[in-house]
Specification:
The complex is a heterodimer. Chain A contains 1 helix and 28 strands. Chain A is mostly beta strands. A 4-stranded antiparallel β-sheet of chain A has the order 3-2-1-28, with no helix packed on it. The two termini of chain A are 34 Å apart. Chain B is α/β, with parallel strands linked by helices. Chain B is 33% helix and 16% strand. Classes of the chains: A mainly beta, B alpha/beta.
Amino acid sequence: MRVSALAVSVAATIGLAAGQGPAAAYTVYVSNEKGNSITVLDSTTLEVLETIPVGMRPRGIILTNDDKHLLICASDEDTVQVLDVNSHEIVGDLPSGPDPELLDLHPSGSPVYVANEDDNLLTVIDLADKKVLAEVEVGVEPEGVGASPDGKTVVVTSETTNMAHFIDTESYEITDNVLVGSRPRFAEFTSDGTRLWVTSEVAGVLSVIDAKTRKIIKVIGFAIPGVQPEHIQPVGVRVTKDGSKAFVALGPANRVAVIDAKTLEVEKYLLVGQRVWQLAFTPDEKQLFVTNGNSNDVSVIDVPSLTVVKSIPVGTAPWGVAISRQ
Amino acid sequence: MSLGFREQFRCSVCILLLLLSLAAPLPGRAETEGEGETTPPPPADGALTTVPIGYLKQEVKKVIPLSRLNVEPEDAGIAGAEIALKDNNTTGRFTKQQFTLDVERVPVDGDAIKALETLVESGHHFVLVDAPAATLLQLADAVKGKDVLLFNVRATDENLRQEDCRANVLHTAPDRAMLADALAQYLVWKKWQRWLVVKGVFPEDLAYLDMLRRAAKRFGGTIVEEREYKETPGARRSDTGQQQIQQQMPLLTQGAPAYDVVVVADEKEVFGPYLPYRTWDARPVAGTAGLQAMSWHPAHEQWGATQMQNRFQRAEKRFMLPLDYQAWVAVRAVGEGVSRVGADFAKANTFLRSDEFGLAAFKGQKVTFRRWDGQLRQPILVAAPDLPVSTSPQEGFLHEHAEVDTLGIDQPESKCKLQ
């Protein structure tokens, strides 16, 4: 990996020399799965501001709509912790049920939908009174959670059942099950709500599903010269708000794939750190932060130029990432 | 990171495989429904399709292992199949498919063929066989030509994948070649290339030793000497204590040519576990004792295995063992096949052996069946008693198609003619 580290640092130098620093400053939160901590980064200086100790095995994280709290799936404590982003104190817990892994919010800000990987459940929790509104039985090892922009549907992917379950957010009934490639890990609606993107880690593919008909539009595969197919394991995916581009973390392939979200063709592969898990845009979508679980760092991608500009060391085994507007 | 011919070739193969795995009529973009995934035809009346799975366990007379930690639980294997059955049925709720598991235990000297016939007559097309190699062969031949697929969940014997391979058997148990290769790759990676072999007297020990010799040759190990432990198994426990062993093991390993690691071939656990910490020289022990290659370890937690271990332990109140995993994979393979192409035997049987099949089985990559001998292609754990140490294939052992095929009998050297 010496070569890639060099490439990254060269790219960083070029990037900074070209004066591509973003205008707005945002705060980036990264969960360190083995470090039992949250690393706080500044999106402008790309420096670590602070490391906050949290519960055991923090994985999926998300900011509340007001950006005041960070919700942290503390998987080994069977709870979702609520971190006050100003005081850096844990100010509460959500009754998530066992082994929470990933979560998403209703567009209105509440409830929060949590996948309980160990219990084949989706737990729905009201954020105001921290009460469980519903538990929906889904397939084996639920993981990815994505709420539709209109708030009417939440999708859960189950890793051993290999399905994307579409759940009605009012009746909590499963309305459709779409069989996808092996070990689906992440579900993301496009911001216009027309499509759902689901990654399949073990099958090494990504399925783009029509959100209305619930049929697969296309299965996108990946091929990287010099990388064996079994190392291509898509996990996190993010689509730009304008629906033009998608970025997919490819796990131990150590690449982020850039996809033209309109033609659904892969455009480019960006070399990042080892075992890339999750990714998040800054609110202006000029930067993309990606977590590299095996190299204990975060890669920063400059979105307009599609270049990796820096890698920032964080805690042990970084996993989730969320970015605040402040 | 240079891009040689091999990589390019490999890449064109992987693109081809990808296209095949998409199973679409056209590889291009198409706004057609269901592209990429085959969905099973739902039953016309919306009723449940039931898929019965059999588990045939041939009881055998066993030598009691040296360590009471290694006494095999009564339900070893069966428990793994039960958990997979639950997993299949959770999925089945959405696909309107129901799986059942029926266990036939055949006593020592019992009639295994009759037990299999009972299962087959009651509609079991998929049967896990937990039996010695000879019994498995008899069973495979007894149902030849019928709509029956057997899963070998226990036997590691090479001949079942080579000259005695059968078209109606898939092997979820790794064979001795895979286990020896997985261990050898790690030892060579570690630069522990000089091996002092200590072997037992049983045919199984010699069969494993053969695979160790093969692995040494393939990956660059050297067996500096082979020594035999001649004592026949007596009483496992005695009140006399450990003084004798403490004297015996140093003597057994004294005066060896320079070596890096003791490699034990003692499948029945007659003396192997006595070796660690008792060798004449301060050397690690590997093989059938100490550092071992295996399909599963109760403390394996990578690649989502934590969830598997948790739900197994919750349900079965014990740790999950390799045999449980091998049975889990077999039942899950049936579930995966039926969820993708439906319960029709011919379709499911073909699908399991096809490029479209791939099972997520907590090994960091999909597991599939080798076309040339029906062996499950899977990464192998290399583990110490408390924790896994590594997973093979190791970095640097290259293969033109898939690194995992550096473990075991690869296509060019296969003697198997499936029929």
